[in-house]
Amino acid sequence: MKEYDLGxxxxxxxxxxxxxxxxxPNTEEYKIIKYQLIKAATSAGANYEExxxxxxKVILPIK
Length: 63
Known about the structure:
Blueprint: H1 6-21, H2 28-53
Helix pairs in contact: 1-2
């Protein structure tokens, strides 16, 4: 694994977002924002990991 691996950086980003959001008040408005931001921050890493396992077929045009 490289030192600046994207998967690792996305995990650290997600953790930092969650730690930051824990510092915000628990008002109704913040609860909605916190929920949406946690979903967005963690889904970036999940989508990246899923894409690493995917395979695709490249179809080249016939000349």
